[in-house]
Design brief:
With about 270 residues, the protein is an alpha+beta fold. It has 2 domains: about 20-150, Jelly Rolls (Sandwich); about 165-270, Homeodomain-like (Arc Repressor Mutant, subunit A, Orthogonal Bundle). It contains 10 helices and 8 strands. The protein has a 5-stranded antiparallel β-sheet. Strands 4-3-6 form a 3-stranded antiparallel β-sheet, with no helix packed on it.
């Protein structure tokens, strides 16, 4: 499970300032809402699903490309048993180096165009075959994708990456929750910190994310507890307390809900 808010991508290979991988998302998978400055392109190759981008719910099926423009909140979920898609995230600085102004441009969110999937197939082939200069070839195809999108699919009528007021409220609250999720904070504490009424905050948070504030906060606490159990070697009671859970049985219930396993199984697996 990868629960996140604002993501800071670290590209480890200077010759490949991209992330590129195949994802399979099932009806039991968790994909939490997040955002980042680097543009993300989702090439759907199997199954039906939805991508929520800020306030917009975009349906998707095989051979659709879904664009997540810079700093847009987004999450993906299935319509059915599972979906498969290739995820291509491109470094914003790399885009701008070639004149593709990602921050001020809005690429159409849903596209069905075989030319783009042709470029995708070339990237996959270069990655798998690893012929001489394959990294340069991959980046050449990435530039082809950007060039094709900017020439044909810039949405001139869309807002230039300006999120609505309530989207900014949600971003601020998620950032605050990630920073303070190990503390005993309440919904009122979060609302007060970001400067909005509890009622307004809860309403727009649920509308934007599909989760209540407490559901999202608990998920963040559980993710941190998982790290304590898996990587830091803490006991179950220690991990629970450090994440703000005073009732061990409630902690176990919430942990199982979001991780689909028991904290004891994670702990025992790590200490065999």
């Amino acid at each position: 499970m990868n629960i996140s808010a604002y993501e800071k991508h670290k590209f480890t290979d200077p010759d490949l300032p991209i992330f590129f991988h195949l994802n399979t998302l099932t009806d039991k998978s968790s994909f939490w809402i997040h955002w980042h400055e680097n543009p993300e392109f989702l090439f759907f190759v199997n199954g039906n699903g939805f991508v929520k981008i800020d306030d917009t719910l975009v349906s998707t099926e095989k051979n659709n490309l879904i664009t997540v423009n810079s700093n847009r909140m987004h999450k993906i979920f299935t319509q059915g048993s599972e979906i498969q898609y290739y995820c291509l995230i491109i470094d914003k600085g790399f885009c701008e180096q070639f004149g593709f102004n990602i921050g001020d441009s809005c690429i159409r969110e849903k596209i069905s165009d075989p030319v783009l999937f042709m470029y995708l197939e070339r990237i996959i082939a270069e990655r798998d075959e690893k012929k001489p200069f394959y990294k340069a070839a991959i980046m050449g195809e990435v530039i082809n994708i950007l060039l094709y999108l900017f020439r044909n699919y810039i949405d001139e009528d869309a807002e230039k990456n300006v999120s609505g007021k309530h989207i900014e409220v949600v971003k601020k609250s998620i950032t605050y929750m990630k920073k303070h999720c190990r503390e005993k904070i309440s919904v009122s504490d979060i609302a007060d910190c970001i400067g909005y009424s509890k009622y307004y905050f809860c309403r727009v948070f649920k509308q934007a994310t599909g989760f209540t504030v407490n559901e999202y906060l608990n998920s963040l606490k559980v993710e941190q507890a998982y790290t304590y159990l898996k990587k830091d070697g803490l006991s179950i009671s220690e991990a629970a307390v450090k994440c703000g859970f005073s009732d061990p049985s409630y902690f176990t219930k919430i942990f199982k809900k979001y991780m689909h396993t028991l904290p004891s199984q994670v702990h025992d697996e790590e200490h065999k």
